[in-house]
Amino acid sequence: MIRILMLLAVLMTGPARAExxxxxxxxxxxxxxxxxxxxxxxxFGAIKRETxxxxxxxxxxxxxxxxxxxxxxxxxxxxxxxxxxxxxVQIEQAPSFYAVASSGVLRENLxxxxxxxxxxxxxxxxxxxSANVMDSPAFEAALMRIRSREALYQxxxxxxxxxxxxxxxxxxxxxxxxxxxxxxxxxxxTRNGTVVxxxxxxxxxxKVGLERWLYDLAHDNALxxxxxxxxxxxxxGWGASALFGLLRR
Length: 249
Description:
Mean pLDDT: 79
Largest sheet: 6 strands, mixed
Number of helices: 7
Structural class: alpha+beta
Strand order of the largest sheet: 2-13-12-4-7-9
Helix content: 25-40%
Low-confidence stretches: 4-16
Radius of gyration: 24 Å
Order of helices and strands: HEEEEEEEHHHEHEEEEEHH
Shape: extended
Strand content: 35-45%
């Protein structure tokens, strides 16, 4: 409630365009621990105006994107009774996580030309570089389908609560299998499908505690990490053997 009042106070001061986004986040950093089971980010804000509200259908679109990485998508086919990889498409850039939430139905609130310009929808942010496969869009669709099942890709129509065409809020659920890095968060304000204002910030996702120590050890000192893992495995095996020996007596 205090954050909402602060946003309303901002609306009363300072120069602005006809309509401008004022944003807030429930948190700007997510800590991944050994027991991390996911997190929920609350994105909220207000629309600042100096004049009367313009005509046209208003919508708010929120996107949260994880770090980009190349991905190879392969197609399997049955050959002589064995499933083998046949075709492959190299995706040059695909977000490790992507959620897009809108106050209405996304395709009704965003023109195709605006999507091309701002790259808001999921298909527009995935880029493949394969030239030897005729139906490469099918591979992109497969990637989106697989990651959607894992909650890594989310399309959330009617998920932004827009009150009195001034205050808005939405909750984005981050799954447990997050990739570490900076998560680009963008908010778009549209009128009749045309973007009239946008705002961008970042959410930092980092491993902490034991999870961070093990991650750094595995990457910075692989030999020590391997020896430590071997020692733990030997100790666990010896302990289990000793326990079973005691139980037999």
